[in-house]
């Protein structure tokens, strides 16, 4: 009986202790739950703000990526059109080049045939020309031999003519030297004659001046008083002018 009471007391004590601890735990739990709720609210606000920022950035990047994608699509379309145009041009050029190659091959074949024909004709002409040249060479050799003989005769004749011309040239040089000496003598005589003529002209001018002076004197003198010497001098003046 006593044991049961002690056990009931212990159970009551334990129950009371556990009740106090449970109350403390519950109060702590409420505080922790409040803190957790506050932290959750703060975290949710931060997360919402970050999410909004990320969404805005995502929208910006999406717009940018869409714009870049549109530009890239335009460039790809332009590149595809360029590739198509270049492929068409290349095909056309390939066709043109094939046509040119075909034409060149035809021309080359024609030219080769013409060249073979011309070569054959040239060989035939060369053989005939060689035969003609050989004949002309023999004729030219005979003509050269005859020309050598004729040239020897002409050389002898030219030598004799040259000797005669040299003799005539020597005689001509001698005549020229004699004529030159005569010309020099004639020039000396001409110079002396010119000097004498100059002297005579000077004397004539002096005599004419004397006559003029005497005429002036006679003109001033009376008719009856003219001296005989003046009349004689006047006559001499006329004779001097005539001489």
Description:
Residues 22-71, 190-217 form a coiled coil. Residues 218-243 are annotated as: Disordered. Keywords: Coiled coil. By secondary structure, the chain is mainly alpha-helical. The protein has a domain at 166-242. Helix content is 96%, strand content 0%. The protein is built from 2 helices and no strands. The model is unreliable at 228-243 (pLDDT under 50).
Question: What secondary-structure arrangement, pairings included, does this model have?
Answer:
Blueprint: H1 2-220, H2 228-242
Helix pairs in contact: 1-2
Q: Outline, from the CA principal axes? A: elongated
Order of helices and strands: HH
Radius of gyration: 77 Å
In whole angstroms, the N-to-C terminal distance is: 222 Å
Q: Uncertain segments of ≥5 residues (pLDDT<50)?
A: 228-243
Q: What structural class results from the helix and strand content?
A: mainly alpha
Mean pLDDT: 79
Instruction: Work out the helicity level.
Output: over 70%
The main sheet comes to:
none
What portion of the residues fall into strands of 2 or more residues?
A: under 5%
Kindly state the number of beta strands. Answer: 0
Our count of helices gives 2
